[in-house]
């Protein structure tokens, strides 16, 4: 008589991120998963932690030795905003990935225990499978939206796919004395960060440390690049883009004051669409924007339709909710003051603050 079948129990544990074989397992799991994003990749959350002085964790659930659930986490500390466990840090995506056989509640309980152990009174899950809206967890829907659409089949079709008013702006940019370069050399990185710093100061936002951007570029290797628009040899708009699962995502970008007059940002995104298609991308993922913000309407002008996002947050009993959203009305005064800072001062102070925003 055969013994009755006993299903193997799922085990939740932290992977050793110093083990290159474990990193390879995670990269393969994310690559296979239909909901995997660039922000689930160890190439993102490990360098992000290292370059900002924070910590990275990979919480997995295994059954018979195979990963059935994965939650990437960054433990972020800020003397201004407090401590946070985020999935994932400095990202607009992340959260729990599961396949058949997973037991999500056990993963959420493990994340809560980790937060307590690390003295993090807050957890943010920026996508993925979400916990029930109870037991300290709350859902937030509609505050942000994502934007994505397929790329066209050729250059002319791409231009024709842009709504009329925005297409006119792109056509004007094509008649301007602008040049476009793509690469990841030191010169590309220098040009990008100079533009990025000025752009963030003008928006009233502390700029991220250069080490963060460099670490992500190095971590992604061929799956990231920098596109820079120059006017008379001077960089006026530049963007770091990530490539994942057939999609391109322009992530860290911006322009100088001159960029608007020159329509350099319009040229930058159009050229990126063309470049990404030539690289083999099929989808242009315009990323996340706060609902009804300037960026939100800018993306709609390009013909992208908003898809509301739902995030989940956990707050420890008795703790106050964390407030670190740069677009928050509570921070509006600080934002206006930051816009008035001399660029040199903003560039020195900004990274010290931004490394803890998460």
TrEMBL record:
InterPro entries, A to Z = Acyl_CoA_acyltransferase, BioF2-like_GNAT_dom, PEP-CTERM_FemAB-rel, PG_Glycine_Bridge_Synth
UniProt cross-references to Pfam families, sorted A to Z: Acetyltransf_6
Ranges for domain BioF2-like acetyltransferase come to: 166-300
- Which PANTHER family does the UniProt record give? LIPID II:GLYCINE GLYCYLTRANSFERASE
Protein name per its UniProtKB record: FemAB family PEP-CTERM system-associated protein
Task: Tell me the organism.
Answer: Novosphingobium silvae
The uppermost taxa in this organism's lineage are:
Bacteria, Pseudomonadati, Pseudomonadota, Alphaproteobacteria, Sphingomonadales
């Amino acid at each position: 008589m055969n013994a009755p079948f006993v299903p193997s129990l799922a085990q939740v544990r932290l992977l050793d991120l110093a083990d290159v074989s474990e990193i390879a397992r995670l990269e393969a799991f994310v690559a296979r998963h239909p909901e995997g994003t660039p922000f689930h990749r160890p190439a993102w959350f490990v360098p992000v932690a290292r370059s900002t002085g924070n910590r990275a964790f990979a919480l997995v659930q295994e059954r018979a030795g195979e990963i059935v659930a994965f939650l990437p986490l960054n433990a972020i500390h800020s003397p201004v905003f407090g401590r946070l466990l985020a999935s994932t840090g400095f990202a607009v995506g992340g959260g729990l990935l599961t396949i058949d056989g997973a037991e999500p509640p056990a993963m959420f309980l493990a994340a809560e225990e980790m937060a307590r152990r690390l003295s993090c009174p807050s957890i943010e899950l920026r996508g993925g499978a979400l916990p029930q809206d109870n037991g300290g967890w709350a859902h937030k829907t509609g505050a942000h939206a994502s934007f994505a659409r397929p790329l066209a089949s050729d250059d002319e079709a791409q231009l024709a796919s842009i709504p009329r008013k925005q297409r006119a702006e792109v056509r004007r940019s094509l008649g301007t004395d602008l040049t476009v370069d793509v690469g990841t050399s030191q010169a590309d990185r220098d040009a990008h960060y100079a533009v990025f710093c000025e752009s963030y100061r003008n928006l009233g936002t502390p700029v991220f440390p250069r080490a963060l951007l460099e670490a992500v570029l190095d971590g992604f290797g061929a799956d990231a690049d920098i596109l820079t628009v120059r006017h008379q040899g001077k960089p006026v708009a530049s963007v770091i883009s990530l490539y994942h699962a057939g999609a391109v995502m322009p992530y860290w970008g911006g322009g100088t004051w001159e960029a608007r007059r020159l329509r350099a940002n319009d040229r930058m995104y159009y050229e990126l669409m063309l470049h990404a298609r030539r690289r083999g991308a099929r989808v242009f993922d315009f990323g996340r924007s706060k609902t009804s913000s300037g960026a939100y309407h800018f993306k709609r002008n390009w013909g992208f339709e908003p898809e509301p996002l739902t995030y989940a947050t956990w707050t420890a009993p008795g703790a106050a909710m964390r407030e670190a959203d740069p677009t928050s009305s509570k921070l509006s005064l600080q934002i206006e003051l930051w816009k008035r800072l001399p660029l040199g001062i903003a560039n020195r102070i900004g990274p010290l603050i931004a490394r803890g925003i998460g």
